[in-house]
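From the shared-data thread, chain only:
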Amino acid sequence: MPEIHFVVRWPDDTVTACYSPSLVVQEFFVVGSSYALDDFLARSRDALGIASERVRARYGFPCSRAQAELASIEAKCRALVRARDADAPAAVRVEAFVPL
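Structure, as tokens:
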């Protein structure tokens, strides 16, 4: 399966290369686009869930690395929600897709 990183810039200006075991993330995100935190999280859940299921269909088990990546994204979103000013918009920008 083709693996890929989707590189994101968080509202706190940190940059993370997020892993996906499938190119399906390219159907959920557009490079250069920004997504509200809740939208980014929902899209990540959907995309990484599908990617993990594709691994299950092919190899007989889900992708633990995709599940771990989703857990990291969820933790980062929770931390940003706790730390942000309620009046400040919080958006995640997709910077790039990097094939592995």
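The first helix runs from residue 37 to 59.
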